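Hi W.,

Here's what went into the run:
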Amino acid sequence: MALTGFELGSDIKRAPLNIALVMDQSSSMSGEKIERAKEAAIMAVSKLSANDIVSIVTYDSTVQVLVPATKVNDKSRLYSAIEAIRAGGSTALFAGTSKGANEVSRFLSRERVNRVVLLSDGMANVGPDTPKELGELGKALAKKGMSVSTIGLGLGYNEDLMTQLANYSDGNHDFVKNSADLARVFDREFGDAMSVVAQDVKIEIICEEGVTPIRIIGRDGTIIGNRVTTRVNQLYSAQENYVILEVNIPASEDGSQREIATVNVKYNNMATKRSEKSKNLVAVRFSGNSESVKNAIDKGAYESAIEQIANVETQRALELRDEGKVDEAEKTLYRNASFLDKAARLISSPKLSRQSIESKDEANAVKEDKNWNESRKAIKAKTYKRAKQQERPK
Amino acid sequence: MKPYTRTIFILILIVPLALLAWLGQRSLTQDRIVSEHQSAELAESRLREAQTLIHSFISDLQQSAVTALSLLQIKDSVNDDHIALIREVVNSDPYLEHVFILDPERTLLFPRDTRVHSNTERSFSEELLIIIKDENAFRVNPVSENDDSPLSEYGIPKRNANLYSSLSRSRKIDQTIADTSRAQQGRDVSIETGWTTWDAGTSTDIFLWQRTANKVLIGQKLSYSYWLSQLIARLPSSITSNVISRNVSLASIRLVDKRQRSIYQWGNYPIEADNSQQPISKEWLTYPLDGWRLEYYAPLQDKSHTQTLMFIVSFLSLLALMGVGGRLIWQEYRREMRNAEQRVSFVNQVSHELKTPLTNICIMRRC
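Here's what came out:
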């Protein structure tokens, strides 16, 4: 099932932002990195309008709230606060995120896009530091109504921690190898936040009798009996977002048709500032003829489904590699590539062929030890983006 | 005669100096003790402040524990409406990870394997089975029964709106919570609430539970990360190093958990990461944060060091001055003495020279 955000026209005012910029200023950031980060932050702040709320938090061994959450009236004050950032100390990532989230929660509102943007280049070494703990924090913050985007800079950060932190709130995650690219990523991040058209999208899928849900592909959700619930934190303007559910349907006669599920969607429309609902029915038609099945394939849906299934496989390959099973990981990725190729031929999809080539490249990367740290960060960011459908058409 | 004067002379020089040194040293120690005492007092008061912050956070949290959940009129079974409400509360409250319900006989009413559950609920119920076996798991902690403990208040719960504000909570629940608070204020029912911490492997589970009037236990497993993050949000943040003026004394406070892991620190004094530094003062936290401590760090007596140094320098220069002066005076004294001796011996000689001829003359005259 797919959800598409309506396009923000010039007549519709975008939802105001409530954003906390949480920046790493540990000693590893010193030099080029911190200067680029400051430039990127200043550039991002310059795009905000007077209606937006921003706060700036930096962390090293301790946490400094440079600018508490305020409306963007006096930009020069913000600029001078950013200019004054100096690098030095350890990385209290958990505390930094906590303080940033606290600043956002001061003005937490359904009408605003509530978001924490975290930049880090190193391992968290003060306070909680495991991916699980940070993931849990991300989940609680998502429940509270804010999203967390994470930007990993350089090769020193923990990609598992950063993706888990962003995961539950459908925040963005980016791997920035070169600090020169920071401005572009910040620009994208703020642009994204400005194009949010719906928030807190709750999806409930109730399967009909006999249909058993197996798993939601590429996203967290809860399956209780025949009820499946999942949540998409936000929808962006003119962007399609889909949830893929794998179900088991009992075989039926040729030509017969049946309903398999009811889908209820509830969301906050940011333009009308109202909570809206929609309801849909999903039906299937059975056929004994493989040719007619092939012709009936909904190309878009099929492509998305294959993309996500292959993505889950890539993630599994990554896990295998982490366990030291290099050969198995490589095999999984090659299998993935041929699976993608086959699907690409069936519906003649250039997108899936591209993914297949990527999969082969990844299979090569898995074998190499030398650049594995970098490759792992790149693959992790790529699979994350794919699962979150983060790449948006410009 | 000479060495004797010398000793006296040296004594005259040394005694006041020694007296001065002794007095100076005494006043210095006294000063140090006073300043040590002052900084210890400062450390303690800062630590107590932080401790109060943490304890008030905990007790606020405990007071807010009585939520929509206590409205559940559960006697001996859990029905579908109850479960729907529980799930809605869990899904919308950032503090909550899981909820479970125990009947007076300590059997699990929810989550229960005979019902349809999600995977997380199922694995939670497996975890719970071990905890429930512990008889003391959900009792009022004996430590917290002291009057001065912030955890002993089992009065009428007041909800702290800030603490439990959540955007995704539906209006329905907000309404029920408001009703609950009102109902409770009206009827003076005492609901027993308490904390339970459970160490499982490398992580600690924190449960906040309440026992309703009909002895049903409603337990809430808190999200450890969120709980910690809210605690950190309450604690002070630091000021940027380039804003700090020179007059502000350097100090930092660090919160350390049961596993000796540094959780959060604030202040302007850089603490060595390798734990090589000793804190000036420590303060232990109480249940449910037993084993946690606050540590106060500050530079070691910088002021008295410079004082001692100044004293020693001035004493040494005084000593040198007196040495030089004493030597000059001694030399002067010696010259004077020599002159006097010369005078005396001259007079003696003169008188002798005079006496000899005079004697001769006298003798000659008598004769």
